[in-house]
Design a protein that fits this description.
Length: 557
C-alpha cells in the first residue's frame, strides 16, 4: 500500500440510537440486502447531519457531554478558541484540549451551553466488510453545499488505524466515521494514492486516554497499523455489483459506449430518441467516433448533431431506428443517502455509491489559475496554469503580487478572498514585481476550465477535462473514470435519476439530474431539427414510469 498522505475532513452526528444494528455486516448477496443498507443509512442520516461540525479549514463531530472530536493535525493549528459551525448554521466556540498524536485524534471542549451530540461506539469490534458512513466538508465548508455523505466498508483494523474504502479528500480530516447504528467509530485522518484506501483514527484510541486528553495532555501511544493488500482494497467488489445487476437490467438496453478510431472507449451514452439519437459528454467526444450498443459487437459510425456547451452535452446520431430511449425521472429518488448505480453496456453495473449532497446549483466562481510559493509576507507565483485567466493576462512564474485593485496582499489567502468575492467577467488590476521592475497587469476574470494542478493529478486519479460550471448537479460518491461519464445513473429500482457528467475530484462524481437532462434535450432536439419522441403508455410496474415530453419530469409512482 502507498504511503498515506495526511488530509483534512468532516462529518456529523447526534442522538442515541438502538444498541445493536439489524443490518448484516457481510457483503450483500441480493438487491434486497442493499436496500436494507440504504434504508438504514437514510434513517440515521438526519441525526448525523445535525451533529456535523465545520471547524476552521476542516471538520469535526459533536459527541455527548459537550465535546468535539477532530484530528490531531487539525487541532494543533487551531487558535486557543475556535469557532465551529453546525449543519443548521449555528456557531459555537470550542477550546482544544489533548491530542492523540499517533492515531491523529483530538478533543475540544465546547464553551457555553451543551449541544446534542453523537454517541461514541467501539472500534475494537469492527470487522472487514462492515458497512460504514462518512460525512465531511471536502475542500472545507462551502456555502453552496452542506456536509458531503459517503458510503463504504471497513477493509482492515489495527490499534491506531481503521482502513475503509470511503472516498476521502482535503477538508475531511477530523470528521467522523459511523457504523450503521450511528455511533462514531473513527475520525478521518489521511488518504493514500489509492482512491479506495483511506485511513481513520479508531475511536478506542480516544477512549483509552480520555482522562489524559481532557487534562490537555499530548498522548503518543503506538498500537500497530493496518496494512491492506491492494487486491483487497476494492470498492466495487464483484459480489456487490452482482447484487446490483437487477437495477441496471432495463436501462442497459438504452446505454451505449462511444469509442474512438482505435476502438478505445472514451465515454458512455444514453439513448434519448428511437431514431438513433444518443446523449453523451461533449468534451470527451473528439475526432472520428463510433457507437457500440449494449449486447452488440459491431460499432456503428456516429456523428455529433447538436451540443450544449453550458452542460457539456452532445447529441450523437447513429443509423438506427429501433432504439429504446431512457426515461428520466427526478424528485424523491435523489434524496441524500439514496444508493445510485452507474449503468454500462455490460450485464453488471460499472460502479455504485450514494447521493452525497442535495441537488444544487453551484455559482461559477472566477479563477486566476496560479500556484503559489510559500514565502513569508510575500505572494510569489510558482506556476501559471495553462488555459487560465492569469496566463491570458501575461502573469509569469516568480512574479510577486503586491496588491489587487489597490488592496495590499501579504498572503495567498488575501488574494483568494478578494477574487472569490468577484464574479466571472470582472476585471482586476494586479500590481506585481517582476525582477527589479514593478508593473500593473489587468486580468479579465472568467470561469476557466483549467488544467489540474500536479499534486491533484497524483492524488485524485483521472478526472474529467470539463468538471465544473454545470447548470445543476447531483453529487455522488461512485468512483468512476472520465470514460464512464455520459451514461445513465439509476436508483435501486432502475429509474434513471441522472446522467453522469463529470469525474470532478477524488471524492466527487457529478450527474445532471433527470429534470436538467430533460430541459437540455428541449434545446438539443430543436438544434438538431428533430421532433421529440412520442409519449409512452403508463406501465404498471412501480419500477418503471411513463415517458414525458422533454422538459417535463416523469412522475414517480
Amino acid at each position: 500500500m502507498n504511503r498515506s498522505i495526511a488530509f483534512v475532513a468532516a462529518l456529523g452526528f447526534a442522538a442515541l440510537l438502538p444498541a445493536q444494528s439489524t443490518i448484516p455486516s457481510a457483503t450483500p448477496s441480493t438487491l434486497d440486502d442493499v436496500r436494507a443498507v440504504e434504508r438504514r443509512v437514510r434513517e440515521i442520516l438526519p441525526r448525523l447531519l445535525d451533529a456535523t461540525v465545520a471547524v476552521p479549514g476542516a471538520s469535526g463531530v459533536v459527541i455527548e457531554d459537550g465535546y468535539v472530536l477532530t484530528a490531531s493535525h487539525v487541532s494543533r493549528s487551531l487558535p486557543d478558541v475556535a469557532t465551529c459551525r453546525l449543519h443548521d448554521g449555528r456557531e459555537f466556540e470550542a477550546e482544544p484540549l489533548g491530542r492523540q498524536t499517533r492515531a491523529d485524534a483530538a478533543v475540544m471542549r465546547i464553551r457555553g451551553d451543551a449541544i446534542a451530540g453523537a454517541p461514541m461506539g467501539r472500534s475494537a469490534t469492527l470487522a472487514p466488510g462492515q458497512w460504514c458512513v462518512m460525512l465531511g466538508h471536502p475542500g472545507g465548508r462551502q456555502p453552496f453545499r452542506p456536509a458531503s455523505v459517503r458510503i463504504g466498508r471497513v477493509l482492515a483494523v489495527s490499534g491506531d488505524t481503521i482502513v475503509t474504502d470511503c472516498p476521502m479528500s482535503a477538508g475531511d480530516s477530523g470528521g467522523p466515521l459511523f457504523d450503521l447504528d450511528g455511533r462514531v467509530i473513527g475520525l478521518n485522518k489521511s488518504i493514500t494514492r489509492d482512491l479506495t484506501t483511506n485511513n481513520h483514527a479508531p475511536i478506542d484510541t480516544l477512549r483509552d486516554a480520555w482522562d489524559d486528553l481532557l487534562a490537555g495532555q499530548r498522548v503518543s501511544t503506538r498500537k500497530g497499523r493496518a496494512w491492506v493488500p491492494k487486491s483487497e482494497a476494492t470498492r466495487d467488489a464483484s459480489a456487490i455489483l452482482a447484487a446490483l445487476q437487477p437495477s441496471v437490467a432495463r436501462v442497459r438496453r438504452s446505454t451505449a459506449a462511444i469509442v474512438d478510431e482505435t476502438g478505445a472507449r472514451v465515454a458512455l451514452a444514453a439513448v434519448v430518441h428511437p431514431d438513433g439519437l444518443l446523449l453523451t459528454k461533449a468534451s470527451e467526444v473528439r475526432g472520428t467516433i463510433a457507437c457500440r450498443l449494449a449486447g452488440e459487437t459491431a460499432a456503428l459510425p456516429a456523428r455529433v448533431v447538436a451540443t450544449d456547451p453550458g452542460d457539456d452535452l452532445a447529441l450523437v446520431r447513429i443509423e438506427r431506428r429501433d432504439l429504446d430511449p431512457v426515461v428520466w425521472v427526478d424528485g424523491e429518488t435523489n434524496a441524500v443517502g439514496a444508493f445510485v448505480v452507474v449503468a454500462g453496456i455490460g450485464e453488471q453495473p460499472e460502479a455504485y455509491g450514494i447521493v452525497g449532497v442535495p441537488n444544487y446549483t453551484r455559482t461559477r466562481r472566477p479563477q486566476l489559475g496560479v500556484e503559489f510559493r510559500f514565502r513569508r509576507n510575500r505572494v510569489q507565483l510558482r506556476r501559471v496554469l495553462a488555459g487560465s485567466a492569469a496566463e491570458a493576462a501575461g502573469l509569469q512564474a516568480d512574479d510577486v503580487i503586491e496588491s489587487i485593485d489597490g488592496t495590499p496582499v501579504k498572503r495567498s489567502r488575501d488574494l483568494g478572498v478578494i477574487v472569490r468575492a468577484m464574479k466571472p467577467g470582472d476585471t482586476v488590476a494586479l500590481v506585481i514585481r517582476r525582477g527589479e521592475t514593478r508593473q500593473t497587469i489587468r486580468v479579465d476574470l472568467g470561469f476557466v476550465r483549467a488544467e489540474r494542478q500536479p499534486r491533484q493529478a497524483r492524488l485524485w486519479g483521472p478526472t474529467s477535462t470539463v468538471r465544473r460550471g454545470f447548470s445543476r448537479v447531483l453529487q455522488h460518491d461512485a468512483v468512476i473514470t472520465p470514460a464512464q461519464c455520459g451514461g445513465p445513473l439509476v436508483d435501486l429500482d432502475g429509474r434513471a435519476v441522472g446522467l453522469n457528467i463529470a469525474r470532478a475530484s477524488r471524492i466527487e462524481s457529478l450527474a445532471l439530474p433527470g429534470g436538467a437532462v430533460r430541459q437540455a434535450l428541449v434545446g438539443l432536439f430543436e438544434q438538431a431539427g428533430v421532433a421529440p419522441p412520442p409519449r409512452r403508455e403508463v406501465r404498471g410496474d412501480r419500477r418503471y414510469v411513463p415517458d414525458a415530453t422533454p422538459g417535463e419530469v416523469a412522475s414517480v409512482r
